[in-house]
């Protein structure tokens, strides 16, 4: 661990975690010198990328001492190495997980039974544990039961303890292995951990190497390739170009700080490993596109479904005139005039196409009348006696759709009959109720897998209209289905462009459209405008953070009469930095919820604003959905979701939830928020794009306040898309269409 001349190397044992960031990276720890560095009464405050450490971990830390103006001397860590415990230390840590067994009692048991201790405990736990002072009656029974039920996790824990893995990593591994951790499987193939939630290649690799894996082995290279493809999927890609798959993998194997010469030297061996995976049918290479079997099959299937639907004969026998109506149908029938304006020609064209084709698309920005078009379509079909089904990816979006159209709407998962453990009940063999129109709102959020599940469950008599804003960010999940369908130029589509008078008065709407065309947001209102968009100049990140916290916690809730938790949402471009999600969450929580009771085993507190970070189909809570942790009730947590639902979850399942007073713009896609605060600073320059700002601003209902510097805004508006998603859907649709015609 070489460093500069003023660096020290200390062996330290962690005794307390003062603070850990939500992403688990940064932490402030209390530690005492260990080993040769041990001195009576010694103490160090350790800061830096040490969030993976926990109480009892022993590490060799390289760093330098710094002086904090408020908190005094700290040891700023630059690099770490785990210090493997002795056999007795490893056994002691395992023993101390038994209720009633502390360090002193563990030491006495080790001294009394020696190498036979673990075997005796497994065979006669009551006889051994009764020798611990104070363990009698119910306490002894509890300790014996704890030892028996923890057999699987204990074997894994002891194995990893002996090889110097830190406590946080061991905990993640045990959770990933499920209810019955199998130490035999872990020994035989540590890399299988990468297929489990929360375990990445670096963790599995560290375990494998600790257990004796050769760093140059073919298995290690294959595991790294599979993980590189999984990471690409997390970034939204459906495949990686052949050369990029190899380059990502070589960087993963070499490590972040390795010189390029070392990275390049790995390429031939990685290419050989890739050929092996392809030969074993573990991955697919189609014309230089490397993909997992699942994503390759999903993209192929979706292309075939789309090609078939675009060539099918329409089944809705509804006479839709070429021109829109010139009088309100309610008035023509002798009733009162409706509240909706008459549909425009382009809106009516969308209605006509939806009835004339089994698959069509309606897209457009805010204020262009997508909702009004859906209302017109619902009226036409209901007047003709045809059924209409409406759905959206999230519960809140479905509720908005139902309120806007006057027709019943549901989530896609509920429509498809999702059953936890069994998956979707409706597919091509058991389609959803058939014979009418299915309208899918917020279709820009559809990732590849959900689009496949939905369209394969559409029966041969049902038409589908996909509605969404194609200029928003791509979905959270692989693919960009709505954009790809438009790009294919195969699916009939209408793009609404005219902003209607009422919406045109909103500075949010006008600013969104201006930014979508690369122009700066509109901040000066006209005499008839609704001033609901504001820009506050703060070029310094720390000053901007102060402004954002003040706005979100006090000024905006008071001015707009909305709750600070749930009524105001900070939407940041990225997680890091003074105006990133992590720093803002920590600051806002200490103002809005400083004394909330902490949930056991979680960093979350009662009263926290929270967000789900993965799809939980069992609870029907999707990645990015927001709510509040209302109460901890025994071993359960009660959460009040923004869509009005109250859900109950076991506390152990809170590990996929995180603080969300601030969240990323990507995670907020598809949400609507009363008041949004959007930081835009040069510290986020790598993430800033036109699509990101457009998506952030269009989340706001009542008001949007952008805080930052205009140079950063200009930079964002000059980048239409920050990152390309590798998909092949448009080409595959054209291929499938050619096959169908041929």
Number of strands: 26
Number of helices: 30
Structural class: alpha/beta
Q: What is the residue-mean pLDDT, rounded to a whole number?
A: 85
- Beginning-to-end CA distance, first to last residue: 65 Å
- β-strand amount: 15-25%
The poorly predicted ranges are 330-337
Radius of gyration: 29 Å
How much helix, percentage-wise, in residues? 40-55%
Characteristics:
single chain, alpha/beta, five-stranded mixed barrel, 20% strand, globular
Explain this structure:
With 742 residues, the chain is of the alpha/beta class. The strands form six sheets. It has a six-stranded parallel beta sheet. The protein has a five-stranded mixed barrel with strand order 1-2-3-5-4. The protein has a five-stranded parallel beta sheet with strand order 17-26-25-18-24, with helices on both faces. The protein is globular and about 95 Å long.
């Amino acid at each position: 661990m070489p460093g500069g001349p003023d660096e020290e190397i200390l062996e330290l044992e962690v005794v307390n975690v003062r603070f850990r960031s939500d992403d688990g990276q940064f932490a402030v720890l209390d530690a005492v010198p260990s080993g040769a560095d041990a001195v009576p009464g010694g103490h160090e405050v350790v800061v830096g990328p040490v969030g993976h450490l926990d109480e009892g971990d022993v590490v060799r830390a390289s760093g330098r001492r710094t002086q904090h103006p408020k908190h005094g001397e700290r040891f700023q860590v630059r690099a770490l190495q785990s210090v493997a415990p002795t056999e007795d230390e490893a056994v002691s840590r395992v023993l101390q997980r038994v209720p009633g067994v502390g360090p002193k009692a563990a030491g006495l048991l080790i001294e009394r039974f020696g190498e036979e201790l673990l075997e005796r405990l497994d065979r006669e736990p009551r006889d051994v544990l009764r020798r611990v002072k104070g363990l009698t009656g119910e306490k002894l029974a509890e300790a014996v039961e704890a030892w028996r039920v923890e057999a699987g996790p204990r074997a894994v824990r002891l194995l990893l303890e002996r090889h110097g893995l830190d406590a946080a990593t061991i905990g993640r591994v045990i959770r990933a292995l499920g209810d019955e951790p199998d130490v035999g499987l872990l020994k035989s193939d540590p890399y299988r951990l990468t297929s489990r939630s929360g375990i990445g290649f670096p963790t599995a690799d560290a375990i494998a190497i600790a257990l004796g894996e050769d760093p140059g082995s073919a298995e290690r290279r294959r595991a790294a390739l599979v993980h590189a493809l999984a990471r690409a999927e997390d970034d939204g890609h459906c495949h990686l170009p052949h050369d990029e798959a190899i380059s990502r993998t070589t960087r993963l194997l070499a490590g972040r700080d390795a010189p390029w010469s070392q990275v390049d030297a790995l390429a031939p061996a990685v290419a050989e490993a890739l050929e092996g995976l392809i030969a074993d049918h573990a991955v697919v290479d189609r014309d230089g596109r490397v993909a997992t079997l699942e994503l390759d099959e999903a993209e192929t299937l979706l292309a075939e479904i789309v090609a078939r639907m675009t060539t099918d004969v329409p089944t809705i026998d509804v006479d839709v005139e070429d021109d829109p109506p010139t009088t309100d149908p309610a008035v023509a029938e002798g009733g009162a005039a409706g509240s909706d304006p008459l549909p425009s020609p382009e809106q009516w064209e969308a209605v006509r196409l939806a009835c004339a084709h089994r698959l069509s698309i309606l897209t457009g920005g805010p204020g262009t009348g997508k909702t009004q078009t859906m209302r017109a379509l619902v009226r036409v079909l209901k007047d003709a006696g045809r059924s209409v089904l409406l759905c959206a990816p999230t519960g809140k979006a479905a509720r908005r759709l139902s309120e806007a159209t006057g027709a019943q709407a549901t989530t896609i998962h509920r429509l498809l009959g999702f059953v936890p453990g069994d998956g979707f009940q409706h597919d091509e063999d058991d389609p959803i109720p058939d014979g009418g129109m299915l309208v899918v709102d917020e279709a820009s959020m559809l990732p590849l897998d959900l689009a496949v599940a939905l369209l394969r469950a559409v029966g041969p008599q049902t038409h589908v209209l996909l509605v969404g804003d194609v200029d928003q960010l791509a979905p959270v999940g692989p693919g960009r289905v709505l954009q790809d369908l438009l790009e294919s130029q195969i699916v009939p589509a209408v793009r609404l462009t005219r902003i209607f008078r009422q919406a045109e008065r909103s500075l949010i709407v006008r600013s969104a459209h201006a930014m979508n065309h690369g122009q700066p947001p509109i901040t000066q209102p006209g005499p008839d405008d609704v001033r609901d968009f504001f820009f506050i100049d703060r070029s310094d990140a720390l000053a901007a953070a102060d402004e954002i916290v003040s706005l979100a916690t006090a000024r905006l809730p008071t001015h707009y009469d909305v709750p600070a938790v749930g009524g105001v949402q900070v939407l940041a471009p990225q997680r890091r930095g003074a105006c990133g999600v992590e720093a803002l969450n920590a600051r806002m929580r200490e103002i809005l919820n400083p004394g909330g009771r902490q949930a056991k085993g979680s960093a979350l507190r009662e009263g926290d604003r929270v967000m789900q970070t993965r799809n939980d189909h069992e609870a029907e809570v999707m990645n990015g959905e927001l709510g509040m942790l209302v109460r901890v009730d025994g071993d359960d947590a009660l959460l009040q979701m923004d869509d009005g639902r109250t859900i109950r979850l076991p506390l152990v399942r809170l590990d996929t939830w995180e603080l969300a007073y601030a969240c990323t713009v990507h995670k907020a896609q598809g949400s609507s928020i009363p008041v949004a605060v959007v930081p835009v600073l040069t510290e986020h320059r790598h993430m800033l794009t036109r699509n990101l700002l457009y998506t952030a601003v269009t989340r706001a209902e009542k008001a949007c306040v952008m805080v930052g510097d205009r140079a950063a805004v200009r930079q964002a508006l000059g980048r239409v898309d920050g990152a390309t998603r590798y998909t092949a859907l448009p080409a595959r649709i054209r291929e499938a269409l050619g096959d169908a015609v041929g």
